[in-house]
Amino acid sequence: MQIAKLHAARISQQQLAPSTGLVCLTDGSQLGLSPMERHYLNYFRSHTSVQCAGLAFDPFWQMLVHQASESHPAVRHSVIAISALHRQFLDPTSYQNDIFSIKQCNKAIAHLRADFGKNEPLKSAQIERILIACVVLITFGLFQGDVATVRCHLRTGTRLLYEWRKTNGKRSVLTSVLLHTFVQLHIHWGTATAFRDYLGGEFAYIGDLMSDYLAEISDFADDNEQAKTTLLLSVRAWIVMINNCTLSQEPHPRFLEMENFLLGSPANENNPFQSQIERSVAEKEPSSIQQRALLMVKINIETFRILHTSVSYAGDEMGWDNLLPHFKNIVDAAEALLSSFNQLPDFTFSIKEGCIGSLLLCGFKCRDWTIRRRVLDLFQKYNRREGVSSSAESIAVLKRIYELESAGEPLRNGVPACDRITMVIVEEHANHSHAVPTVRFKYLDRNRELQRESLRL
Predict the structure, then answer these.
(1) What is the distance of C-alpha 179 from the center of its chain?
(2) Which of 165, 170, 283, 400 has the fewest Cβ atoms within 10 Å of its own Cβ atom?
(3) What keywords are assigned to this protein (predicted)?
(4) At a CB cut-off of 8 Å and minimum separation 6, what does 126 contact?
């Protein structure tokens, strides 16, 4: 409640500010900033933060980060950096924004180092501000495609959140918001990296955080029971996947129960998840916003099913052919999500859940050319960035893979086994400057020989 009041007061101040050519400082957060920094700070508050929130209201991006940016310079400079990236996305020819955003990110990191460098224990309020800044810097790294930055801040921030909650963090009014935000970041990162970062046990404690998160969602009193149900379904799916990757010992019975709920069990032919979705839709005619949420859940669950099933393939590309119905369901839902809700606001620069990663999986692993054409058409029609993924980069990578597999021949109904690229790994790359980013990937050709090449975007 206190956060909401402060946020409302700040908005009222901005609305009352005179619209003239003079600079009117409405809060102390703008003192000491250059005109360009003030411009991007205001742009973040009015435009970028809403975009980052995605399809649904997000208390972190639309409330908490605004309050923190007024009092903490690390948060302030990091949101300025993201705002500059947002403007660059809207105007790709503006390289100045890229240089400016890097400098702002460096300023934010310098302020964080100053907080950590003090020879005294961190207070709870300091930890809260550090975690908020950490989330924004992770988001900056995702938008930049800077894998090293994402890994560094995600590892440090998650460990700090875990330790903080073990001591006194659960008593903080902000703990639920921060827990929700970090879990969503892990879901995004796990999807983007096919959970490779979670195989080594480095995030072994993420299962505890996600279990707490599920408990908080379940206990939260919400008038919109349908919205809570769809959120629970989506989070449960990714908890199962991340838990399977991070735990070397026997899975916890609670996670086995969730896995059976999502996928069904040998003793139960009916899928409990599908039944609950059908009941949710049948009980009450969903609004446009609820329909969009249900489509997003469907995309997430179908992607989960594909990744969960593919674990047993051991490099055999023919195994993906059995998943054609799931690929088709993802593309159908994505088309409806992007085209059927023109009356609702669209979010083209978001850090939250979206469909680019799932569509890229369909375009890459599905060998049906009809599905591949539909995926390319969607990427070409809708220019979007969702964290580490973007339409433009997806188009470039998929087109090159298709060229390799078709070998200049006309597109057929499917890719014969003899023509399949049996392994393609898109190598990680950092973008620390305004230079044109390059995607590097390696693959085994039809003669089983390792090939490497770079693709400038």
Answers:
(1) 15
(2) 283
(3) DNA-binding, Metal-binding, Nucleus, Transcription, Transcription regulation, Zinc
(4) 115
Would you state the pLDDT for residue 265?
Answer: 46
Residue 172's closest CA among 205, 131, 138, 119? 131
Predicted TM-score (pTM) of the model is: 0.77
Give the up-direction half-sphere exposure of residue 359: CA atoms within 13 A in the CB hemisphere: 34
Ranges of each domain in the chain = 1-10+28-187
The distance from CA 370 to its chain's CA centroid, rounded to whole angstroms, is 27
8 A C-beta contact, residue 78 and residue 111: no
**Is pLDDT of 359 > 90?**
yes
Within 10 angstroms of residue 138's Cβ, the number of other Cβ atoms is 27
The tens digit of pLDDT for each residue in 224-242 reads 554 555 555 556 655 555 5
Residues linked to residue 349 through DSSP beta bridges, in sequence order: 385
More confident residue, 3 or 282: 282
Q: CA-CA distance, 391 to 371, in Å (whole number)?
A: 16
C-alpha span between 119 and 99 (Å, rounded): 33
Give phi and psi for 393, each to the nearest 5: -65, -35
**Tell me: the pLDDT tens digits for 56-77?**
778 899 999 999 999 899 999 9
